[in-house]
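User: Hi! I'm working on a homework problem where we have to compare a predicted structure to a textbook description. Could you give me the structure for the chain below?
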Amino acid sequence: MEDQQNLEQIVNEINAYNQQAELIQQQIELIRASIVEVDTLTNTLDDLKGKDSVEAFVPVGAGSFIKGDLKNTDEIIISIGAGYAIKKDVEGAKEIVAGQKEDLEDSLDKMLGNLQQVTDIVGALTNQANQIAAAAQGQMTGF
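Assistant: Happy to help. Predicted structure tokens:
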């Protein structure tokens, strides 16, 4: 009877850790998507460098775009977080973006570490549950 209660408790813990692992995995995917966006911005800034004018599609809302010309490609308004943005030249913007990417990569490393810890805990709990189940099975068969 005590083994059954221990087994149920371990199964509940495993389920809770599996849910936590899913949330961490979702955060990892969001961070990876942000890194891709930052890389895309860096590549775009590199492509704009030295060009006086560039033809582009400008978003106007609801997934719609208008073809337009970007006239002043040597300045960019860049988000610095918390709803704030500043005007920078291309090199200054690239420095900010590089810092943002570094922060994202640090966050990604931490999330991957957290996921590994949770996975290790689930593995240990699963082994523990298997041992309890095997012992209970052995008691039922008389071995």
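For your comparison, note the following. The longest strand covers residues 54-61. The radius of gyration is 26 Å. Good luck with the assignment!
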